[in-house]
Amino acid sequence: MIQRLFSVFEPFVLSLLGTVLLATVLPARGGFATFMGHLAEAGIVLLFFLHGAKLSRDAIWQGLRNWPLHLAVLASTFLLFPAIGLGMVHLPGMDPAWASGILFLTLLPSTVQSSIAFTAIARGNVAAAICSASFSNLLGIVLTPALVALVMQGAGGAGGGSGVSLASIEGILLQLLAPFVLGHLLRPWIGDFVGRHKSLVTTVDRGSILLVVYTAFGAAVVEGLWSRVSPGDLGRLMLLCLLLLGVVLAATYLIARIMRLSPEDAIVLQFCGSKKSLASGVPMAGVLFPAAQVGVILLPVMLFHQIQLIACAMLARHYGERAPAEEASERA
């Protein structure tokens, strides 16, 4: 059990924690902060450009065939999660800053890599997981900012006053949507190159996240982040993230039973429908919110990211180990 827990702490997670530590000890200031901010923006643009070039149109059309499953995943990601988030931010004693982070977390799209990986480990429908996770990320480029504008403004005090300004909308169009669309349009010419150099996408993906995390947390540290966050606050945030994940995992399990999905498709709903993407959340937060707010807003996202990896890794292994035994009993 201990070995399984430690196996989840991959090098990127350790890099993420190291970046937060670096931003705490040596935050970017003055002209260096401006330079790092521009570098992070360039990384975000390149990230979404490469993701657009990577997305196959064939995968989109093939995925449409299993539309009930994909609609269920999207409903979990963009309806169930926000509904739970709105309930959580009105809990007694909820700090408005943490409310903004929790709400933003619930509005993010699903992950791609870990959703597919856990589905494969659990012996689920991998092809459907690829389509569901891709659809979620594709729609999230538009839906997440729209939901931030609708939910976080409509939540009033729970949103901490964090709305989407005209400048944020321009940033979404120029830094997220435009490069994604451009990359997808250029896929016939650059798709093979991107496919052959998957490590390039991974490097840009993780590098841009680390850049945004460093600039965001550095700005928050300069504004006194850690003077406002106590160990008790972090403990309460972790409990809220555990509660959120537990409710969604249970809900997706029940929904799969009600829909009478096959075991393979039920696994897709549970793993794709319970994830939130750090890779999408970090650059989106950098575009949507003022620099001084981003660090606070990203704390719940980073905590939930690690919790979902640990919990879903253990759950996927359980499903994967159970499947051969069930197949053997059926043959007997």
From TrEMBL:
It comes from Sphingomonas sanguinis. Pfam families: SBF_like (PF13593). This is Bile acid:sodium symporter. It comes from the Bacteria. Keywords: Membrane, Transmembrane, Transmembrane helix. The chain crosses the membrane at residues 7-26, 32-50, 71-91, 97-119, 126-152, 164-186, 207-225, 237-256, 277-304. InterPro entries: Na+/solute_symporter_sf, Put_Na-Bile_cotransptr. The lineage of its organism: Bacteria, Pseudomonadati, Pseudomonadota, Alphaproteobacteria, Sphingomonadales. GO terms for cellular component: plasma membrane.
